């Protein structure tokens, strides 16, 4: 049970206060959060600029990636502005509404990015396994509706923390994590809404891993039975897009496993709390880096390729696709 000022009087929201005294360990943890979150923000902005610049991402895959990146940016900006500084300075008398608001904003964006990643994974599976159906399945209307669904679903889920009694969570600088706020007279040590959302994200990511296995199997089949198609630039690009998504699924599963273990409890071990909180940020860093590392078009952009050179490359891809009868990605206009 949470109490304040060393007395036996219950103080609601005291979990979200700092120690009141800075320590070397708090400073190290806070600075690490700030550095990782700042890196994630910078990489996220770079991703948005790259997608705007390169026409190969002007399709449903790129639209889903943009929506997910916006979610990651929102999640990490609150860490730069609030989570990291309060962890370093450990202020004692923080109004609970501050930590709760930070959780509602940060988790809202993080959950949206989680949902959007499932659409990214499904998008790649269909592009590789059923290219002839890709344009009809992921046309402009479907793409827009998927994005609207993700943001709407997260809005509804996050409202449950407030609407259902004794479910509220907030950021705690002394626990280095989003933690459950106990209610007076209750022995409940976690939010069951939070547990449902955490395990729901884990289940969705598991489905994405299954999608990845199906996609990988299809890639192997094409390479073994259709060597000409396997050398096509469009197919190879789809494989690269799949690879970057698959790598992200693996790291996300590890992160969600840790989050499910901690489950926003304030009685957990410090190491687990830090791992749960910072692994989410690391996943966002990994997601952003994947776009850069797996795509030579992006790397060429960084080393000074001109717009005309990139446009020529894309036009050549389109010619190759027409030659072998493959269907290119749809343009989301």
How is this structure best described in words?
The protein is an all-alpha fold and 333 residues long. It contains 11 helices and 2 strands; from the N terminus they run H-H-H-H-H-E-E-H-H-H-H-H-H. A two-stranded antiparallel ribbon has the order 1-2. Helix 3 packs across helix 4 and helix 3 packs antiparallel against helix 8 (233-262). The protein is elongated and about 75 Å long. The termini are far apart. Mean pLDDT is 85; it is low at 1-6 and 306-333.
Could you estimate the helical fraction of the residues in percent? over 70%
Shape: elongated
Order of neighbouring strands in the sheet with most strands: 1-2
Q: Radius of gyration in whole Å, from Cα?
A: 22 Å
Low-pLDDT stretches are 1-6, 306-333
Layout of helices and strands, plus pairs?
Blueprint: H1 24-53, H2 60-89, H3 96-129, H4 131-137, H5 140-163, E1 169-172, E2 177-180, H6 192-225, H7 227-230, H8 233-262, H9 270-293, H10 296-302, H11 307-324
Antiparallel strand pairs: 1-2
List its traits.
single chain; two-stranded antiparallel sheet; 73% helix; elongated; disordered N terminus; disordered C terminus; 7TM_GPCR_serpentine_rcpt_Srx
Describe, in short, the structure shown:
The protein is mostly helical and 333 residues long.
């Amino acid at each position: 049970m949470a109490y304040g000022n060393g007395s036996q009087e219950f103080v609601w929201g005291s979990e979200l206060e700092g120690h009141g005294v800075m320590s070397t360990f708090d400073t190290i943890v806070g600075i690490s959060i700030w550095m990782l979150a700042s890196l994630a923000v910078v990489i996220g902005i770079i991703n948005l600029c790259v997608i705007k610049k390169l026409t190969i991402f002007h399709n449903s895959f790129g639209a889903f990636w943009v929506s997910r990146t916006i979610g990651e940016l929102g999640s990490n900006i609150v860490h730069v502005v609030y989570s990291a500084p309060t962890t370093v300075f450990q202020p004692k008398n923080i109004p609970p509404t501050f930590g709760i608001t930070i959780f509602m904003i940060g988790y809202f964006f993080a959950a949206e990015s989680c949902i959007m990643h499932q659409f990214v994974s499904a998008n790649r599976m269909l592009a590789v396994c059923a290219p002839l159906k890709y344009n009809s399945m992921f046309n402009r209307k479907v793409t827009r509706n998927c994005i609207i669904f993700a943001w709407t679903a997260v809005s509804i889920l996050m409202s449950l923390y407030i609407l259902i009694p004794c479910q509220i969570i907030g950021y705690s600088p002394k626990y280095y994590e989003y933690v459950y706020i106990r209610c007076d007279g209750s022995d409940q040590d976690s939010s069951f809404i939070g547990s449902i959302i955490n395990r729901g994200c884990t289940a969705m990511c598991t489905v994405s891993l299954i999608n990845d296995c199906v996609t990988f199997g299809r890639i192997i089949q094409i390479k073994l039975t259709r060597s000409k198609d396997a050398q096509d630039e469009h197919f190879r690009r789809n494989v690269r897009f799949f690879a970057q998504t698959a790598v992200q699924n693996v790291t996300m599963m590890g992160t969600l496993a840790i989050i499910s273990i901690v489950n926003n409890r304030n009685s957990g071990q410090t190491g687990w709390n830090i791992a749960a909180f910072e692994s989410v940020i690391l996943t966002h860093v990994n997601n952003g880096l994947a776009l850069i590392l797996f795509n030579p078009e992006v790397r060429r952009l960084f080393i000074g390729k001109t717009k005309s050179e990139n446009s020529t490359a894309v036009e050549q891809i389109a010619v190759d696709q027409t030659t072998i009868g493959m269907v290119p990605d749809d343009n989301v206009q």
